[in-house]
Design goal:
By secondary structure, the protein is α+β, with helices and mostly antiparallel strands. It has helices at about 25-35, 55-65, 85-100, 120-130, 145-160, 165, 190-200, 215-230, 235-265, 270-275, 280-290, 300-310, 410-415, 420-425; strands spanning about 5-10, 45-50, 70-80, 105, 140, 170-175, 180, 200-205, 265, 270, 320-325, 325-330, 335-340, 350, 360, 365-370, 380, 385-390, 395-400, 405-410, 430, 435-440, 440-445, 455-460. The model is unreliable at about 1-5 and about 10-15 (pLDDT under 50).
Length: about 475
């Protein structure tokens, strides 16, 4: 995984980028992109640009393609965790300017939930910030490559992960209002750096990559060189294993979906139906039920209790299994899922964004801001003069895509796997009684900007 650092590496003396008649590397990147995005000519590509070598190469390759002119942009997320983060953002601006690619720099704050590592919290904050910059016609491109996939799969194996963990990162997946695609998963770090040197690119190196107290760095610096010296095709071989694991998991999900539908009683599951399944199949069904409902997964011990002792208990025992902020309760012959998170609230706030584009939120929730931008997703001319901001009450609905039906906020939050502890803390923006925006995650079609929108802005939730 590429990271940013104060040190800027230059492959050669700066100068005009070479324009070779044939570029096999670029042709492979474009072929991978076309295979992953069949409707490539009609979508907007948004590159997640950290400034590291991988994302710099991806943006540079795509910026040289005349067919993508006007359909390519980039986003840099500034976590504000490092004193040099402003320099990294400035480097990304310089690169984007040289490539004539529009760049948005989105600043976010990283909030660590109990038990989360700083890396995990930063990753969640980064993807939320990226999600807020996408519309339904956008495809987010990240520059994860084969060595990243190798590291991720091995780390998951060492942590005892199941098939979803071993499957690691998919090449393409639904993401926020659009899609996420990783076109460099078939490329190794060495060939990416080789192209960067030939193109005389400058990129950022993260000094923390040398910190071997971090598992990924230790694996990258100490273990992988030995593995790859013995098995030169290790990255591609493990990538195949990840694809096989993803395929196997899809089959297990299909089986689990059928088992859950047969056992379903509304949102609950009927115990006799589950008891009729073999133990491994029970665990598979319960995992799917929990994941589909948007709750965090239990560890193997808790899952064993759910599939074993809870289902075998007397009907009048009413046992309960809890983990993190989640609880499964048995009532007679039904299993129910619930959250153990207290709901926080505040009095509705009046926001007049045309006069005051920044709204401070209570309860340590940060602030909402409308930032003018020619590529903003909000149509300012269609935005009401007065808005109301409040937290969830239940039953909220909005229409995030043109030509598609209304969606419940509950289903949207579940689909994005937003942590239960965070769902009650997402600010909702209303115009009258109509839900218009869910923080910077989803916009209702009533205020979405289109090709004819003259005044546009980004709605950004700056979290504390």
């Amino acid at each position: 995984m590429e990271r940013a650092t104060p040190a800027v590496r230059r492959a050669a003396a700066t100068g005009a980028d070479p324009q070779p008649a044939a570029d096999p590397f670029a042709e492979r990147v474009l072929a991978a992109l076309a295979a992953l995005i069949p409707d490539l000519p009609t979508v907007t590509l948004c590159v997640a640009l950290s400034g590291g070598v991988d994302s710099s190469v991806l943006l540079s390759v795509l910026a040289r393609q005349p067919s993508l002119k006007g359909r390519l942009r980039a986003v840099h997320v500034d976590h504000r965790l490092h004193p040099d983060s402003r320099r990294w953002a400035a480097h990304c601006r310089s690169l984007a300017r040289r490539l004539a690619v529009p760049l948005a720099v989105v600043r976010t704050r990283v909030v660590r939930a109990h038990g989360d590592s700083l890396e995990a919290a930063a990753r969640e904050a980064r993807y939320r910030a990226l999600a807020g910059s996408l519309s339904a016609s956008d495809v987010l491109l990240t520059a994860h490559q084969a060595d990243d996939q190798l590291e991720t799969t091995l780390l998951q194996l060492l942590r005892g992960a199941g098939l979803p963990g071993i499957a690691a990162m998919p090449a393409a997946a639904a993401f926020a209002a659009g899609r996420l695609v990783r076109p460099l998963l078939g490329f190794e770090r060495t060939e990416i750096e080789s192209w960067a040197r030939a193109a005389r690119l400058a990129w950022i190196e993260d000094a923390t990559n040398a910190d071997e107290s971090l598992d990924r760095n230790y694996l990258r610096r100490r273990v992988l060189p030995l593995l790859k010296a013995r098995w030169r095709g290790a990255a591609r071989a493990v990538a195949r294993t990840a694809r096989h694991a993803a395929e196997a998991q899809r089959l297990l999900d299909e089986l689990a979906r059928a088992d859950v539908e047969r056992a379903a009683d509304g949102a609950a599951l009927r115990v006799p139906r589950l008891r009729a399944l073999a133990l491994p199949r029970r665990r598979n069904a319960l995992r799917f039920w929990i994941a589909r409902s948007g709750y965090p997964m239990p560890d193997s011990t808790r899952l064993g209790e759910l599939a074993g002792t809870m289902l075998e208990a007397r009907a009048d025992a009413n046992p309960r299994v809890q983990w993190r902020d989640t609880s499964v309760q048995r009532h007679a012959d039904l299993l129910t899922l619930s959250a153990a998170t207290p709901r926080e609230s505040f009095e509705p706030l009046v926001w007049r964004p045309h006069a005051s584009p920044v709204l401070e939120l209570p309860e340590g929730l940060g602030r909402l801001a409308l930032e003018p931008s020619a590529r903003g997703a909000v149509d300012l001319t269609g935005l009401p003069r007065e808005l109301t901001v409040r937290l969830r009450r239940g039953g909220e609905r909005l229409q995030p895509e043109h030509g598609r039906p209304m969606r419940t906020l509950k289903s949207l939050l579940q689909g994005e796997r937003i942590a239960l502890a965070e769902r009650g803390r997402v600010p909702l923006v209303y115009g009258g009684e109509q839900l218009l925006a869910v923080a910077d995650l989803w916009l209702d079609v009533r205020i979405q900007a289109g090709a004819a929108s003259a005044r546009r802005a980004h709605l950004i939730w700056h979290r504390e």
